[in-house]
Amino acid sequence: MYYNNEILSKSKDPKALYTTLSTLLGKSSDVVLPQIKDIDDVGLANEFSEFFSNKIFKIRNDISTITTSKGTGQDKYFSGRKLDHFKPFSEAEMLILLKESKPTWCLLDPFPTKILLQCADTLVPVITKVINSSLQSGIVPHPFKVAVIKPLIKKPSLDKNIFKNYRPVSNLPFLSKVLEKAVKKRLLEHLIENNLLHKFQSAYRQSHGTETALNRVLNDINLMVDEGNLGLLVLLDLSAAFDTIDHQILLDRLQTSFGLDGCVLSWFVSYLTGRRQFISVRNSYSTEVLLPCGVPQGSVLGPILFTLYTSELGSLINTHNDVNHTSMPMTHN
């Protein structure tokens, strides 16, 4: 009965549910890393850093220069009221954001997040001032733009000594994620008010997800069958989708298609540029590297920015998007 209640209580939190089930099934939580002869943890961290950087460089190098610099020309132009400044947050709003935040801790945080949240009522005036200062100046503090990357093996059954079997998982300072949550709130208010999210976009939207995407696809297939047509479903998986986002294309799209301007656009320029990361392997670290493209996978804004970046697909094909997967149903008489 205890375990049944544990599972039911976490049914709406996939991450917590996965952790509970892993514990019940006896799955090991030990860190899986390559075992390479004559290389210490610092060397391994730098090897991972070089591998992840080279992977992104190769993917971007394989993309046409025309595509990366100009897009496809299908962007819709925003004609409504532009979002050129952020509405400041009150202390009451900020306190809600803090209390809704998970107590995740990052290596770059000066003290445990749980302590900060326990003192939220006392610290909220200072935190509100810091967040509003960033929003009003259009500048993201440099310490907020550094990520700790931990290599995570994609599947336990994969060969742990092959680097391509690992994905980079970003860990960001807690206050940087609070800042991102504040920006996301104001950005979504603008997008929803102006009906700027594509109707077939299922990922990263309230009351949408894999279920709505699947229901739509199944409905289309059933309609094809009822009409006596043949159905063909093409599924596309984008490699390193978040990591290869072109900053200039994204910024151009935010301005032309979604009406971001002024201080708001300047904030996103600051957010995207000058980002750095380093790899953490146990208690050792690689050299920091500058990120010329992409958005952090562990960030709050990353998913919504990826959605806006790929919004052009909605003008090209009848799409059903979920995370970095795209489906294209086709009919034939």
TrEMBL record:
InterPro entries: DNA/RNA_pol_sf, RT_dom. It comes from the Eukaryota. It holds the Pfam family RVT_1. Residues 133-333 form the Reverse transcriptase domain. This is Reverse transcriptase domain-containing protein. It comes from Patella caerulea. The lineage of its organism: Eukaryota, Metazoa, Spiralia, Lophotrochozoa, Mollusca.
